[in-house]
Design a protein that fits this description.
heterodimer; A: 483 residues; Serine Threonine Protein Phosphatase 5, Tetratricopeptide repeat; two-stranded antiparallel ribbon; 20 helices; globular; B: mainly beta; 22-stranded antiparallel β-barrel
């Protein structure tokens, strides 16, 4: 074969006239044998799901940022982020992972579904894309949205204002839910969240729409209310069976927190979380935390204290073994029934929907307590009953009731740092104090734009910074924050 | 078409060839050749009739006999590395060749292995003889070139068998390969590098180190495209052309045995200067309970603990141990390395054939425990004259290289040097030599398979990392070529060559259970890489003496090159039964991978060389490549070169004025095209490990380019070679410029587009420089004493003159946010990162369009408004640091250029003194300028292990503290009216993120080589079958002077274009030993 080609080369030289000899068969050599040039949606959706969940619920974003800044976790060594010192390059990595990772994968699912005229797949794609974009805008505020993900067609996408992004996402969720009409989706084994259950995808879309609507309670109450009512009427989660839970199949796909804990021991449970749970005798404390090794007492560590008051590792509580030592197969709770109930409770308390906020509040607590029943962990029914029987837990109504609802929601959002941090930024519940060794003026309320956007998309990024009054610091609130 | 094979073509040529030449009148000439030194007979010298191809070689006694045409007037005697002599035809000619070829005389190997007179070359080529290489042998021939060739920069990574990077005349390709092509006996070979990586990995060395220096006759360095254009696409970065020894000229009777042997011992040349006043801990506290956080700061791997004053503290060795300094606790980890290299060659020649067989064996014991490297080489090379017209040359080189427990590199727990940066200075390493728990150690050490360590939070015991977490690799390689030469008539020759370089590299890595987190359960991986390059060439050569004044050499050739790579491997993340490293023992699904790539290039090339009266020469070359990696219809590209040399002292003898004895001027221009890597025209989805049973794929991140064009490098150079004082002093001066445009780049784009990179033809890098080679014999006495000196010096300036569109920079690599970039308007290899916040002023109106600190803030007192530039700043200098209220320096969030890895100049000075049988030589080399970012310093200050961190804790861990020079937020100079003192621990921790603190000047000077040689008396050697020999004391890397502390600034990060970063570098070896060589 080689000799033939060589002969051809010689011929190509000897007789320039036979020009074909110089290039015959040459192109065949350049066909990449290692991977396909195209794959179907059933292989793209699972990647978009797991890569997105891995980012939001993974060690980088949650362990060091969102769960720290919502004071659910604490850093017991290398306590930099909780003092407002972000490791260089991390924001860069997160931004790139979102856009060039799961967002691009799900965009391709939507594009393929549109091209092949499959509305159900398109609907699922729009819903999951919205879940991803919601996280991106909650972290960074104004973001490339309407012009994003166009690949070579637009390599410098403009930034949309966060209000436009939210409008777009709410509309997309509505469209998405309406497109899913079949009873059984066709992703093969690729639907890692709902195993082709279209009804659950619709409920997820509506639940997510409620979350997004409620987010606008400060910044655009009218839209918040209208969207919430519509989503509520369309129907969110009905029980813990509807939860969006990502189950891990085993090595190398294990719960990313548990994988991180194998190698690092940088995190404990926050003093704020331990104290809040202990104050109401919450039985979830034993699930969320392990007692301190030194004396068996549940003791969180203060956020933002640096090493100033450090004693020893064994004097602090660690994160519960359900996520740590035994956490390899523990699922990531992407969105739960409990959260939906607290959203509905708040909407009822605000008078947006007609329902009993007190009942929804109690149901929310119950759903949170029961969240991991299937895994054999969490409070027993008796413990829950004892807890709910406490006068200190009773729903009080009014503005204080809204605080109570969000307080319980913050507890229920354990292991969902992104949502806990976002809900705290919206409601300021619970009251969180920056620690004694924090190096910036407040607890961070946003991610900073990455260096690459400064050099590769600077005009658009600078316009967004000007519009928001900042964006490179951690201290400038995003639009919906309202404070 | 298929039937027209290589063989048939040759057959056709045989048939079509013209009949034998007319016989002509001849006479017989005999004579002998010796070299100066001791009048030793010189074998293998080419003797030719001037202006013809008629010639022979001298035999082992230096004699030759040749039938020459009756009208022949002059004989030419030439040998690589020696001055060519011309002698009138006569009876019993005696010729003495001079070893030091100063000036323009002598032969040198040029592109395609053609030996040329130096005087006729229009471009700069520098050569080194094999004898020079063997004076102080190096196991990696790339390292042998250090300091010896002007314009060549070599950096190496440190560990035994590690890779060395070579760049000639600066880096021109932004994203492509900037290392030269390596050619052995006319055949390109792979110099693939098993690079180390910033965050760990094993350095498997660069493939050219497979070649044993003892088999090398000479190396020619073709500097850039001007000299190397004929080699095609890969010539833009120059070529290193190696000629191996052959049996030509050897004895016809008996076996001629040559033996060389060297033995050296290695010690670390430089280790960081550590502090010995404070031990492990933080805040001045430490108490060991479990080494993982139960005790007071016993988890920490930093040395901000209590003063090492002998107090009793619970430690990893047991309760209440004296807390004392261990000043030798890093040096004692290293052992004395040894390297033994032996080469035995037999050669034999007859009138019609020659053969050389060599066996080489390298046996090295590295400086880290358990590390060894072996290299076994067999080389067979021979030639035969099959008939009056047909001759055959062939060589076969088999290499078996084997590495065991190569030390880990980079920022990784398997790199011992990193382990000593994150370290407790009180740790007694000798206690850790027994790395397994016996049951007598404090918790959490568990008897049996447990690991005994000083810390159970992060690190492996360094002896565990070296001896339990093992790695091993083996590379088999075969390089072979077969060449048939057919003399069609007295001016036309056809040569066909088939050559192949094939290698298989198998690698295995083991992580034992009970290793430091996250490897508690153990894992292993193995992989096999196959690599090959096949070249088929056919060249027609024409030599015509057009007239008494003009000669013409023409060559027309065709080449087919194919590169193939195939790799496959498997990783097993967890094991079922500890200690069994087999896929069958996997506790989890093994993760396999494989990849293949292939590339083919077809070429047609030609060259013409016209010589006028021996003093004016003009060369033209042209080559056209068709590459498989470029789009159909655009995959053909042509590139030409022209060069000219003019020996003005021959053309105009009156120019031999004053001291000038010879002189030549030269100029050349060349353009070289370069194709792309395979598969850039399309993109593929990347597969992920199965999710349970579900396959997953991700959308590709790189936007391909379907209309890719080849890169173009255009270069020109001018120079002069001058011989002075009867060739006692010579200069070779060259000025060059080289510009690489239309580069094939994976340009970064905003990832919000959903893609991270786009393949574009864009960007240009310009390199300009000056090279100086000076050779001198300052002293030469009648009693035989002689002093020779060679100076190499070069300077290169690079600039990124163009990038795609509005793009300002292309990030070559980023580690700890320290970017190495190709940044517009800057030299290639700029450091871009965070510096200190300084009193540089800010724009109070916030209308500068720049985001960042200070914007939209009123300019309030005590800041004064500097009316000159309208910026707000404190009184004082712009360089003053702006401190926090607590007195700490602050990070400037606006990133900027902090340095550049390119040196201002590099150079080397070689001196050699010889007297009778003795000679002494030494080589000094170094670089001036250039920057280095050192993580040994960056993290070594963070962790308090370095001597420099004693600042501020002279009395106790926070006493007296550090008062940083700078401006406090109230505008006061710190230390004047107010004084904010900070604890050293806080001060050094606070430096994290400010890369500027760890950037230093990389200037250095090294005593690279020393050799003291003695020529052995012949008497008793003759009785054991040798005619002579040399024994030498040798030393390498004996002394280092540098601007930067703690590290050797001469360091390669990996084989890529990301350089100037030092990441827990393995110490350079200082080696001392002896060598012996015996010749037949």
């Amino acid at each position: 074969m080689t000799m033939t080609k060589f002969a051809r080369t010689v011929l190509c030289v000897v007789a320039v006239a036979s020009a074909g000899a110089c290039t015959d068969g040459l192109t065949d050599v350049n066909v990449n044998p290692n991977a396909p040039t195209d794959v179907g949606v059933a292989f793209l959706l699972p990647q978009a799901i797991q890569a997105g969940v891995r980012q939001v619920f993974g060690a980088g974003e949650m362990l060091r940022h969102t769960s720290i800044w919502s004071q659910q976790f604490v850093q017991i060594q290398y306590a930099d982020e909780e003092r407002g010192v972000v490791r260089p390059g991390t924001m860069e990595g997160f931004w790139t992972i979102y856009y060039a990772g799961p967002l691009m994968d799900i965009q391709r699912v939507v594009d393929k579904a549109v091209a092949s005229g499959d509305p159900n797949i398109e609907g699922v794609g729009r819903v999951w894309r919205s879940w991803l974009f919601q996280h991106v805008t909650d972290l960074w505020g104004d973001i490339p949205y309407s012009e994003a993900l166009a690949s070579e067609s637009n390599t410098t996408p403009a930034y949309d204002s966060q209000s436009d992004v939210y409008s777009g996402l709410l509309a997309d969720l509505t469209t998405g839910a309406n497109l899913i009409t079949t009873s059984e989706l066709d992703f093969g084994t690729g639907d890692l969240l709902y195993d082709n259950d279209s009804e659950k995808w619709r409920r997820f879309a509506n639940s997510l729409r409620m979350r997004l609507a409620m987010r606008l309670s400060n910044s655009d109450p009218a839209m918040a209310r209208a969207e919430f009512i519509a989503a509520f009427n369309a129907g969110g989660f009905q029980s813990n069976d509807d939860n969006a839970m990502l189950e891990y199949p085993g090595f190398p796909w294990e719960n990313p927190l548990a994988q991180d804990f194998l190698g690092r021991d940088d995190n404990g449970i926050s003093q704020t979380m331990v104290n809040e749970l202990a104050a109401l005798n919450d039985p979830r404390l034993e699930l969320y935390a392990e007692p301190a090794a030194s004396d068996g007492v549940y003791r969180g560590r203060e956020n933002g204290a640096g090493i100033l008051s450090f004693t020893s590792f064994s004097s602090f509580s660690r994160i519960g073994n359900f996520w740590r030592r035994d956490g390899a197969a523990t699922p990531s709770a992407v969105m739960t029934y409990a959260e939906v109930l607290f959203l509905e409770a708040e909407a009822a308390a605000r008078g947006w929907i007609t329902a009993d906020p007190a009942a929804l509040y109690v149901q929310g607590i119950q759903a949170s307590m029961d969240l991991y029943d299937d895994y054999g962990v969490g409070p027993s029914d008796a413990e829950v009953a004892t807890y709910l029987a406490q006068g200190s837990v009773d729903y009080v109504g009014g503005a204080a009731g809204v605080v109570q609802i969000n307080h319980q929601k913050w507890i229920a959002l354990w292991m969902n740092g992104a949502e806990a941090w976002a809900n705290w930024r919206r409601t300021d519940v619970p009251t969180l104090l920056a620690g004694p060794d924090v190096r910036i003026s407040r607890i961070p309320v946003r991610f900073s734009y990455p260096d690459s956007e400064q050099s590769l998309n600077s005009a658009n990024m600078n316009a967004a910074i000007t519009r928001q009054g900042g964006g490179l610091e951690l201290t400038t609130p995003v639009w919906w924050d309202g404070t | 078409m298929k039937k027209l094979t290589f063989g048939t073509l040759f057959f056709l040529m045989l048939v079509l060839a013209p009949k034998a030449l007319r016989s002509q009148q001849v006479r017989s000439v005999t004579g002998s050749v010796t070299i100066e030194e001791g009048l030793t007979p010189f074998s293998g010298v080419a003797v030719t009739v001037k202006g013809t191809r008629i010639g022979t070689l001298t035999n082992e006694r230096g004699f030759f006999s040749l039938n020459v045409p009756i009208d022949a007037q002059t004989l030419v005697f030439s040998y690589l590395g020696y001055a060519t002599e011309e002698v009138a035809v006569g009876d019993d000619i005696a010729v003495v060749l001079s070893q030091e070829a100063i000036g323009i005389e002598g032969l040198v190997v040029t592109a395609l292995g053609v030996k040329r007179e130096k005087r006729s070359l229009g471009y700069s080529v520098q050569d080194i003889s094999g004898d020079e290489l063997m004076e102080v042998p190096e196991m990696n021939i790339v390292n042998s070139l250090k300091g010896n060739v002007a314009g060549v920069q070599i950096t190496d990574a440190g560990p035994t068998g590690g890779s060395a990077r070579i760049v000639i005349r600066g880096a021109g390709s932004i994203a492509g390969n900037n290392q030269p092509l390596f050619v052995v006996d006319g055949v390109p070979i792979s110099n693939a590098s098993g690079a180390n990586f910033g965050f760990g990995g094993i350095d498997y060395g660069n493939a050219v180190s497979d070649i044993d220096p003892a088999d090398i006759e000479a190396i020619s360095v073709l500097k850039g495209p001007n000299a190397a254009a004929l080699y095609g696409s890969r010539a833009a970065a120059g070529a290193v052309v190696i000629t191996t020894k052959s049996g030509r000229g050897a004895s016809s009777g008996g076996l001629g045995i040559t033996a060389t042997m060297s033995f050296t011992t290695e010690e670390p040349l430089r280790l960081p200067t550590y502090q010995n006043l404070y031990g492990q801990g933080q805040l001045g506290r430490f108490d060991f309970i479990d080494g993982a956080g139960a005790g007071d700061f016993d988890f920490t791997d930093e040395s901000w603990g209590p003063r090492l004053d002998g107090r009793l503290i619970d430690q990893f060795t047991g309760a209440q141990q004296p807390w004392t300094a261990r000043p030798d606790n890093v040096r004692s980890f290293f052992r004395t390395g040894t390297t033994m290299n032996t080469n035995i060659a037999v050669s034999r020649a007859t009138e019609r054939s020659n053969l050389r067989l060599s066996l080489s064996n390298l046996d090295a014991r590295g400086m880290t425990p358990g590390n060894t490297q072996k290299r076994l080489g067999v080389m067979l090379k021979g030639g035969a004259i099959l008939s009056e017209r047909v001759s055959l040359d062939a060589s076969l080189n088999y290499i078996d290289m084997e590495g065991v427990n190569r030390p880990g590199t980079g920022y990784d727990t398997d790199n011992p040097m990193l382990g000593f940066v994150w370290f407790g200075r009180q740790v007694d390493l000798d206690q850790l030599r027994n790395f397994r728990c016996t049951g007598n150690e404090p918790t959490p050490c568990i008897a049996g398979d447990g690991q005994y360590n000083w810390n159970y939070n992060f690190h492996n015991n360094p002896f565990w990392a070296a001896l339990v977490n093992t790695n091993g690799d083996e590379r088999d390689r075969v390089i072979g070529n077969l060449s048939l030469n057919y003399r069609i008539n007295d001016w036309l020759t056809a040569t066909g060559t088939a050559a192949r370089d094939w290698s298989r590299h198998h690698r295995k890595r083991v992580i034992a259970p009970n290793s430091a987190p996250p490897d508690g359960e153990g894992s292993f991986g193995e992989e096999t890489l196959f690599r090959s390059e096949t070249n088929l060439d056919l060249v027609l050569g024409v030599t015509r003496v057009l007239s008494p004044d003009f000669t013409l050499d023409l060559a027309l050739g065709a080449n087919n090159r194919k590169n193939q790579f195939e790799g496959a491997g498997v990783t097993v993340g967890r094991l079922t039964v500890p200690g069994i490293y087999s896929i069958d023992n996997a506790a989890v699904t093994p993760d396999p991978w494989d990849t293949r790539s292939e590339k083919e290039i077809r070429s047609a090339y030609g060259s013409a060389s016209v010589n006028y009266r021996g003093y004016l020469n003009v060369d033209f070359t042209g080559r056209n490549d068709w590459s498989s990696t470029l789009p159909v219809g655009a995959n053909s590209y042509f590139y030409p070169s022209v060069s000219s040399a003019f020996v003005f002292t021959d053309a105009f003898p009156e120019t031999r004025y004053g001291p000038i004895s010879s002189g030549k001027v030269r100029a050349s221009w060349a353009r070289v095209g370069n194709d792309a890597a395979p598969y850039l025209l399309g993109s593929v989805f990347s597969s992920q490990p199965l999710w349970g049973g579900t396959p997953m794929f991700a959308v590709p991140n790189t936007i391909p380019n379907t209309v890719l064009k080849p890169e173009a490098t255009t270069a020109w150079e001018v120079g002069t070679d001058i011989g002075l004082f009867n060739e006692r002093l010579g200069f070779v001066l060259t000025y060059y410029q080289r510009k690489t445009t239309n580069q094939i780049l994976g340009v970064q784009i905003s990832s919000a587009s959903g893609s991270t990179n786009q393949i574009l033809n864009a960007g240009a890098v310009q390199n300009k420089g000056i090279e100086v080679l000076m050779q001198a014999t300052p002293v030469q006495l009648n009693n035989g004493f002689r002093w020779d000196m060679t100076v190499n010096w070069s300077t290169n300036t690079s600039e990124v003159t163009e990038l795609a569109g509005d793009l300002e920079t292309l990030v070559l690599g980023s580690y700890w946010s320290m970017n190495v970039e190709a940044r517009l308007g800057e030299p290639y290899g700029a450091f871009f990162g965070n510096g200190y916040l300084r009193n540089e002023g800010f724009d109070p109106a916030g209308d500068d369009g720049q985001a960042g600190t200070g914007d939209d803030v009123a300019c309030t007192l005590p800041r004064g408004l500097d009316s000159q530039d309208g910026l707000c700043r404190f009184p004082g200098s712009a360089d003053d640091l702006l401190l926090s209220a607590s007195g700490l320096p602050q990070l400037d969030p606006v990133r900027r250029v902090l340095g550049n890895y390119n040196p201002d100049w590099i150079g080397g000075i070689q001196n050699r003194f010889s007297y009778g049988p003795f000679d002494l030589s030494f080589l000094l080399d170094g670089q001036w300028g250039g920057d280095i970012f050192s993580t040994t310093n960056y993290w070594g200050e963070y962790t308090g292990v370095l001597d420099s961190t004693l600042r501020g804790r002279e009395d106790d861990f926070c006493d007296p503290g550090i008062v940083v020079d700078g401006i406090l937020p109230d505008g006061a100079q710190n230390g004047t009216t107010t004084s904010a003192s900070v604890c050293p621990e806080d001060f050094y921790h606070n430096q994290f993120g400010i890369q500027e603190v760890a950037i230093d000047d990389a200037s250095y000077l090294k005593l690279r080589e020393i050799r003291v040689g003695f020529i052995l008396p012949g008497g008793w050697l003759n009785q054991v079958g040798f005619s002579g020999g040399t024994v030498s004391l040798i030393g390498r890397n004996l002394a280092l002077w540098s601007r930067v502390d703690n590290i050797d600034p001469e360091t390669a990060f990996d084989a890529s274009n990301v350089q100037g970063l030092e990441f827990g570098q393995f110490p350079t070896a200082r080696s001392i030993g002896f060598s012996l060589s015996l010749r037949p």
